[in-house]
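Notebook, bench 3.
Goal today: get a predicted structure for Malto-oligosyltrehalose synthase from Xaviernesmea rhizosphaerae so we can plan the truncation constructs. The sequence was checked against the plasmid map this morning, with no discrepancies at the termini. Length recorded as 886 residues. Pasting the sequence as submitted so the record is complete.
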Amino acid sequence: MTRPFSSRPLSTYRLQFREGMTFDKAAELAPYIKRLGVSHLYASPIFAATSGSTHGYDVTDSNRFDPDLGGQEGFDRLSAALKAEGLGLIVDIVPNHMASSLENPWWRSIVEWGADSPHARTFDVDWSRPLTLTVLGGSFEEAVQKGEIKLGLDAQAGVIGLSYYEQVFPLAPSTYAQALKAVDLPLARHLESLAEKADPGAEDDFHAAVRQAFSEDAAGTSALEEALAALKPAQITEIAEAQPYRLMDWKKAASGLSYRRFFEIAGLAGLRVEDEPVFTASHALILDLVEKGVVQGLRIDHVDGLADPKAYLERLRAAVGPDVPIVVEKIIEEEERVPEDWPVEGTTGYEFIAALARLFTVKDGLDTLARAYDRFAPGDPYETLLHDAKMLMLQENFEGEVSTLTRIGREAAGPGVESDETFAAALRALVAGFTVYRTYGTTGALSPADETVLDDALAAAAIDLSTQEREALGAIEAILKGRSPSAAATDFRTRFQQLSGPVMAKAMEDTAFYRHNRFLALNEVGGNPVEPHLTVDAFHDAMIRRVVEQPEALSTTSTHDTKRGEDSRARLYALSQAPERWIEAVQRWHGQNAGAVQALKDGAAPEPAVEWGLYQALAGAWPVGLKTDDAKGIEAFGSRFAAYVEKMIREAKLRSFWAEPNEAYEAAVQEFVRGLLSSQEFLRDFAATLGPYALTGLYNGLAQTLVKIAAPGVPDIYQGSETEDLSLVDPDNRRMPDFARLARLAEAPARMRLDLDALESGAAKQSLVRLGLAARQAQPALFLEGDYRPLTLSGDHAHRFVAFARVSGAQAAVMVAPVRIHELLEASGAQGLDMAAGEITVHLPQDLAGRVWQDRLGEHGGSMTAGDALALSASAAAPFLLMTTG
């Protein structure tokens, strides 16, 4: 690694812009972020997005700062504030898609001009048919008959168009004459003349001329509006059919779209960033910011959505140079690797969360929970649920993509495939057989790793196919392996790989994870609900790989997309460490609340699997310090939890759906939850049961924070998670933290106090962050480049702790953290844990023996000389230890 340490992130702090977070608000936070010891602010998308966007991934102009955040001037103030504090800036960019909104000038252009637009190839559109705009609440014909669709004008945009409520979809200038032929006004003739001469290459001039015509003839404009509004439905329909687009029912998006979208969101249209002009146009501002040194790093959103991720990343790397860190949002499964030839530092870190699960989850305890869950809610195993979810996605949510691939694939395969349905069945089976998100074949041969993935999927797919479908599967194999070269084959190969990832994501993260409620701590992005390797050694193996493959990837524990906050998972891990007590409680609550379960025509509400999941979700999210008699606090929490419940049952896609909510079922489940939160009998029992797990969760939260700081990778702190993060899935996890409270906590000296007040207030966790990040800043080479070595522990409770060293030449660090301590805490409380820690000895390898070690978690940073062992009791913060030497 040749980059200077000054340009390499040592730690990041993720801020979610919007929802109150502006450039000026972020600038105010710069001193606080610096005080934590963070090196780089890590910003969610900051460029112009659709009005009211809550996340910024619906970009409308990638070359303009969002005015809602403060625009250029606000960004300049933020940049100055970061520079004053010595903080770098990493920006989240979105190369895969933009908003398919009239607010997006590039999209507006293709709506108006169709295939003649200068941006016709900016988006991944099938121009063999009209552009589909899924904006209607029903059929086009119904909307016209009801008068919802009329002909109108947009004076500000300078267009005549089809008006649907607040939106005016511009008419193609070539159809102005048709639309205005029955209007006997001088203004109409003038507009016809302007439209006749209109040039898509000079569209701004055309719109300016139309705006001027409207402004100069106010009376004529008013009369024109009246005349257009009086057109009959048949006339409106005739004009609409002449447009390069079609307005259609939003519920038909799954089958009828003419463009590639992000996942199943019709409001996000795929960019053809593989084309150099599109790359250049969509990256102009961010590359300028990098060149000027204002932005020091990039996070690439949804890299798997791109036609050719490797080629994109190589082009980006060439544009930004070798010194700018690049991380990619990519889910890698346990045996998967980030392709070695990608010029990136690594991923955004979801696999790190999965590695942590191996540390804190006890396999025997999970098996006990699994048996109880199967008795409580008998059903299919997770593997079957996931496969069924994939087939649901392929048959319904991604029906249009499958149809498009079938058409292209049959052309590429040539004669021999019996029918479209035969080919589609083979295609669905193959995508459902994938165990990773996608492969990365382009025009050349697949890599050996990708060929193995494909062969495994082919074998899985073939099992239940007919003879004819297997023949179609063979044709697909030939295309994907490059044995049938043609333009259609290349197109098929690209689109197939752009489909398998979204299908996996939606089927697993947004469907199966909400159906399989056995142990919610493992139902996390990048995780595996049936993780087989739940051992400390498995964590060590993952870190040994990590230090070799992606030592500067982000190590995250919470993000804007995680299913629950890091401390919620930390608390739930404890259930696997004492499952019997939890199982008894669930059985007791089930009996107490049996009368609140409603018998509907389609079954019990909630059904057992949902009821089991609700108790766990409540346990994970119950706020620290919330008392059972705090009516106002419970009401506020209940409002947040109700939103989670709605998402939980709609994402499961079993009895209710986003497009078609089952109102009776949803009302019954929500009433059940309200009953739980209003029953003092239940709440007192719940709080008493939760108490010991919650205490373990506080220690687990500290332990995973310390591991994150010391392990290979760059620790990423999601906004507010430097104290407790018990958030639920988005949008709950995107709420603005109480930064005033966080700043007040940080005013005190960083001290690793482990009394209950410090644990519950978050002061202990924030202090750990500050002390740990200070250690990283003091020895950057050690933590960025150091080897990873598992260490041996001895003592009666050694199996409850994890220990490792980081070594870089003369510099070294040793970390010890408690990871499986619930039984100790429940039996003897903090005193029992302290006694157990006092007996732990850390055995040092020969090259680390005899050194002087500095305690990084102690208030005064004491030092000691150790032979071939360190006593955990030597740490001022025992049972946590972080010591460095050199």
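Residues 680-710 form the longest helix (31 residues). The first strand starts at residue 12 and ends at 15.
Flagging this for group meeting.
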